[in-house]
Backbone:
């Protein structure tokens, strides 16, 4: 009896460990995707801002300064739009990761139900 209980316990522990590893892997993939999106957006914003600052430093008269005002507002608007787009992509990645984790949890629940039902079915068949 004790051996059977130990075997069931170890099987359940093994399954739980494997599922925890899968969940961690899914979460890390999601975090990696989010970090990649954010880094890409940050690089683009840094390039755009550096180009704008370089243009500002080359400005010599008031007329060019007026043109920079328009370019500055355009740059701000474009960066805000990019930020919104990246935020939407991040939400999509988070949603996909959550759905994958939910599917994994459902698989684990189903396997646990089957593991509990199998010994009961064997006893009923005897």
Residues:
């Amino acid at each position: 009896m004790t051996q059977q209980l130990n075997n069931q316990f170890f099987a359940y522990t093994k399954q739980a460990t494997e599922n925890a590893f899968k969940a961690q892997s899914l979460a890390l993939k999601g975090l990696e995707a989010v970090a990649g999106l954010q880094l890409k957006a940050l690089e683009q914003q840094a390039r755009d801002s550096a180009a704008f600052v370089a243009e500002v430093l080359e400005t010599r008269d008031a007329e060019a300064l007026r043109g920079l005002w328009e370019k500055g507002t355009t740059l701000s608007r474009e960066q805000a739009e990019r930020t919104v787009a990246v935020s939407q992509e991040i939400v999509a990645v988070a949603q996909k990761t959550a759905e994958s984790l939910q599917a994994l949890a459902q698989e684990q629940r189903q396997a646990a139900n089957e593991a509990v039902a199998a010994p009961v079915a064997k006893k009923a068949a005897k």
